[in-house]
Amino acid sequence: MSDVFDVSDVSGRPGSQSALRRQNQQRLLSALRSGGSQTQAELARQTGLSTATVSNIVKALAAAGVVSTEPTTSSGRRALSVTLEDDGQVAAGIDVGRRHLRVVLAGTSHSIIREASVALPPGHTATDGLTIAADLLDSLLAEGGIDRRALLGAGVGIPGPIDRRTGTVVQGGILPEWVGIDIRGMFRDRLQIPVYIDNDANLGALAQVSWGPHQAVANLLFLKLGSGIGAGLVLDGALFYGHVGVTGELGHTTINEQGVICRCGNRGCLETVASTSTMIELLSRGTREPVDTRQIVERALAGETAVLRVIDDAGVAVGRALAHMANLVNPETIVIGGPLTDLGEILLEPVRRGLSRHAVPIIGETTNLCMSSLGDRAEALGAAAVVLARAGLARPDTAMAQVTQL
Amino acid sequence: MSDVFDVSDVSGRPGSQSALRRQNQQRLLSALRSGGSQTQAELARQTGLSTATVSNIVKALAAAGVVSTEPTTSSGRRALSVTLEDDGQVAAGIDVGRRHLRVVLAGTSHSIIREASVALPPGHTATDGLTIAADLLDSLLAEGGIDRRALLGAGVGIPGPIDRRTGTVVQGGILPEWVGIDIRGMFRDRLQIPVYIDNDANLGALAQVSWGPHQAVANLLFLKLGSGIGAGLVLDGALFYGHVGVTGELGHTTINEQGVICRCGNRGCLETVASTSTMIELLSRGTREPVDTRQIVERALAGETAVLRVIDDAGVAVGRALAHMANLVNPETIVIGGPLTDLGEILLEPVRRGLSRHAVPIIGETTNLCMSSLGDRAEALGAAAVVLARAGLARPDTAMAQVTQL
User: What Gene3D superfamilies does this protein's entry cite (chains A, B) (predicted)?
Assistant: First the structure.
């Protein structure tokens, strides 16, 4: 491997010429990763390097195929636009849902090379999930003509809290068949590549600040609203795991002290009033046709009163739980993800109402609330981001740069 | 100033002899700050330095008066115990309460040199508070025979959320007379030393991991339960401020949707059911004698049924709000501070009950709940800790080491 490829190596005698050259190169690559394509003049401004140094580094990187260059004009003057190229290495992101499984293949420049998803049978076991994921990964590699040896690793998102002391799914979660299993070891043994596992909501949060439009946000709460309700937290620019790794469990905020029993053992939790399972249950009464999440979205968009009411009640309850969370950790941005994102303002409006009603005024006024623009790909993209971060290819100045997944 | 005093300077050419000596010295002083008095052998183990290096550094530091040594025995062998001495510089910690003001003077080794508190009139203005604080600080300096020039700075704790964008107390807090005032500038102009301000609950949290018994805890929630209810958060080893600085507002968690109006404008907030003001109001009905917080503690300890019931109801509500917070940030330890700490298990038991009832099982099982052992001094000690941290004298491996107060 030539010196120019060895971008993660900043060791060597400090102050030596080669160490300095590597550091400058690393700084320039970081600027390209965080800022996308830029002219040499912009890169010089952003890195503080001289234009001559930038030009020399760009020449070497272009010769090695790490970047490509293209003539352009900037303020009427001739300029050279520099773009980061994938270096051929690939990160796999695997999102295991309760009812679906998605795999993405991402390039080192955070390009999406290939992706696919399949339905999972209810009550699937960890072995089922692994087999389906491995097969899907293999077929994506084959379709893309990608050698397995190009795989940097796989990130795996699981829809349940993970006890970081043991690396296993916590009892009482949404995947009872997966409890107590060494998921990381199992995937690693089968895939024969480095594997990182994390909770899906954490990966959704990571996706917002790495692939999504919130790269400048240091404090972000990502709410996954689906058959379960959980949140991932980016705090002070890094994913936050707390003491044992079980964070963001706001699906179990008590909303109605005398409400129905929740799978966690408590009563009247947010999940019992606002999950998609509850919406489906409410809308299935008195009808023989099965209702699914996509129908909820379609019927709401068509203006059906009962569906709108169910969503409104759920939204206000979600907003109330979010208000209490925002009162505690004062996020800059709250992003809502999951299968209902297409509802847009139909869901956002009642959530915003609940948030404003229950947050202290300054929190209600300063918290930005929006839908995830990454749709149902957020978790898989977050999983791929973990792999890139672990390979030293994170976008700097984002949570990814400090990722410490299992 | 001799080289040996210049402990914060780790600059200079890297790798040079003098830079290395300073770094080793710094490491040894850090070990003494975090671990207290230790033998030379223990210091060598903790720092990774050779016993000869430790011995040389200790000799130089002792000659300069930075440490003192005393012969002792360890495992039956002769040893030399090394103790950090104050270097003559002093940090002031000022805690401004709604009804009291406390000042502590702390030495650079985290010794408490002097402290005193006075009552404040209700509705006091920021100017009142400043004058009383400045006078109390002057009298403590005079009593201790301490030159004003020895003051490193003053930390000031305020019982209300502080908007870090402006450095002012947020509207709707517990000190309406202080809203919108540049408290830091006012104190700095009067005291003529560096001033750092922060919310009292944040400082209480900082005190737990710096002066208190929780120095090894990376994720701690400090709940101040008084006429207001607020929390300070130490997350991943640092005080957490969120987006605009308003965190830990769990006093405004909705407990009773149809409850009484709270000063924040919402209904049925935790403060309206569990603050000491509410307890006083409940216990004052049908009696002409005024009730105060101290009487609540005394009457509860004497076993008076009505008082015990009021505390029990408040405790369960506090536990419920704490459960939702713990579900979100998964703290290792929750510490309760404020004027009711002497209640001990009488208050802790219902709080624990509410916490277990409303937290997801793994959170309820792994969260340590205890009373603050620092009593009503926590906030002032935290304020002094900020000053020491800013002077590079923080205990390392604690939140203090990363403090970033206003």
Answer: 3.30.420.40, Winged helix-like DNA-binding domain superfamily/Winged helix DNA-binding domain
A310 in helix, strand or coil? helix
The answer to whether position A108 is within a domain reads yes
Test mutation, B170, B254, B360, chain A, max A CBs within 10 A: B360
Over residues A294-312, the pLDDT tens digits come to 999 999 999 999 999 999 9
Chain A closest-CA separation from residue B102 CA (Å): 27
Q: A380 lies in a domain?
A: no
Tell me: do A180 and A131 sit in the same domain: yes
Q: Are A217 and A189 part of one and the same domain?
A: no
3-state secondary structure A14-60: CCCHHHHHHHHHHHHHHHHHHHCCEEHHHHHHHHCCCHHHHHHHHHH
Give the helix ranges, DSSP H, for A302-358: 305-329, 345-358
Reported as a single tens digit per residue, the pLDDT across A58-72 is: 998 888 778 889 998
Range of the domain at A35: 3-84
CB contacts, 8 Å: B244 with chain A: 330, 362, 366
Q: How far apart are CA B75 and CA B77, in angstroms?
A: 6
Least confident among A73-87, A111-125, B23-37, B370-384: B23-37
Do A241 and B367 lie within an 8 Å CB cutoff? no
Which CATH number belongs to the domain containing residue A26 in this structure? 1.10.10.10
Average pLDDT, chain A: 87
Q: Which residues of A touch B354 (CB under 8 A)?
A: none
